[in-house]
Every structure is written in C-alpha cells, then in structure tokens.
Predict the structure.
Amino acid sequence: MIDVFYHTSVSMSELSDDNAQLVIGSPPFTNHPDGKSLEKKSYLRFIRSVFSEIWRVLEPGRLWVCINTDLRDHARYNRRDGRFNGLLWQKHTSLRYIAESIGFRCIDMKIWAKSLNPNVYRYGFAYVQFFKKSAGSRTQTRTGVSATFSPDVWLLEGGTYRKDSRGYVFRDAFHPEIVSRCLEQFTNAGDLVVSPFAGSGTVPAVAKLLGRRCIAYEIDRNLKPLIEETIANPERYPAFLSLMKMKS
Ligand SMILES: C[S@@+](CC[C@H](N)C(=O)[O-])C[C@H]1O[C@@H](n2cnc3c(N)ncnc32)[C@H](O)[C@@H]1O
C-alpha cells in the first residue's frame, strides 16, 4: 500500500496515533508558498507543528529520520526577531532543539556527503539526524548495525536530480540509497513508513521496492506527475537503477 496525499503534513489526518514504524523526510527550505523567501520565526513555528504531528503518528520507541542542509544566513530571513549572525544558520541545530522540546531524543547523526567538490555558495553535505520517540531508554543504535549503515559519513554522489515526462525538474531529492539504508536498518517488510515531505517521491518509491507500506504528504500538486512516475518507474533514474540491481 503506497498512498500520497496532497495536503499539508501539519495535519496527517489519515493516520492514527502511534501507528508508524518510521518517519523519514527532508523539511522544505521555506514555509512560504512562493518557495523562495524565508522568515525564520514563522518557519520554525511551522516545523514545530509538523514535528508534533510526527510525534503523534509514530509508534513509541521508533525513529523520525530528518535530513537537513545548513544555510548561509541573511538579514532578510530574520526580520521578525532581528537575530542574525550574518554567516551561517545551523538549521540542523535549531531543528534538533525543536524536536527535543517536543520529547524526541537525538540518538545519532550521520553526514551525507553529496559531493567532494568544494562549493563556496552551497553546502555539499547534509545532516541525517535520528530522533527517537523515546519512553526514556537509551537506544543501542551502535549494535546490530548493517554494514552499509555503519559508516558515519555516507558519500552518495548524484541522485538528487529528477525530471518527469513533462520536463518538470526537481533538484532537491534524496539519494534513494539514504532511504533504503534507513528502511533496512529500522523497519521490516510490511511496516508503515511515513514521508511528511514527499518532494519527488523518493521515500514512497523506495518503500515500494522494499515491500514497506508508505503514506506520503506533499503540499505542491505540481509534483503529482513526478511523484507518480517515480513510484511507477524508478528505473528512469540512475541512482534507483543501481539500488534495484543490488536488491535483485
Ligand atoms: C526538500 S523537499 C523533499 C524532497 C524529497 N526528500 C525527495 O527525495 O524528493 C521538501 C518538500 O516539502 C514540500 N512541502 C512544503 N511544505 C509542506 C507541507 N506543509 N506539507 C507537506 N509538504 C510540504 C515541498 O513542496 C517540497 O516538495
């Protein structure tokens, strides 16, 4: 069962409490409909609402895997609270603070190196943060860890570019290997995986390949054809093709 709903993940009304075995996603750059401007204070309020909803739907003891790239800071992002250091916004730290204030525990972190080529304008790596809906116990993330999962830096180049048959281009996708590593490490066949920010549909497509159930949310209806094509024909994209070869 793979279902995609085209509305905000602030309310995942199709899901009951404590029901999902894994949530995995990459929050958008902004909460503005234009997708271009960012105002940190309202953005962080939006993140808090979605993270609280993720807490509600996740089974206790399970993980919310959150993938983020830090940003160059700008005065215009900080209009409402005036706090601005002019250099770097460690977005992953702000998101961790919100997650922990809701009750999650950050139990581990990995670096996804998207490229080894230095880029002055854009970060070439992202943080993969593991937030546990914890009843208090510490997690043994370092035991029973599969070989592909265990390195702390995952060098996975390419795989972020998707184009649908209409020519619509999406440049901000996960490498599918990130999703497959997390699904294999933290879920079993038939488990329910939630994708709160579907984007191009990487999570539902990998879930389908690995025999997991998936419910995904995407606010932008323009992405519907791309999501449907990614789920139906992942082999259109080289990064999926190598994943499919490995699994066959
Ligand atoms: C960084 S992209 C996710 C990319 C995805 N991981 C992939 O592999 O394609 C974030 C997505 O979240 C979507 N989004 C933004 N606000 C949302 C909301 N309130 N509810 C659901 N999706 C939202 C954006 O339209 C965008 O497609």
The longest strand covers residues 58-68.
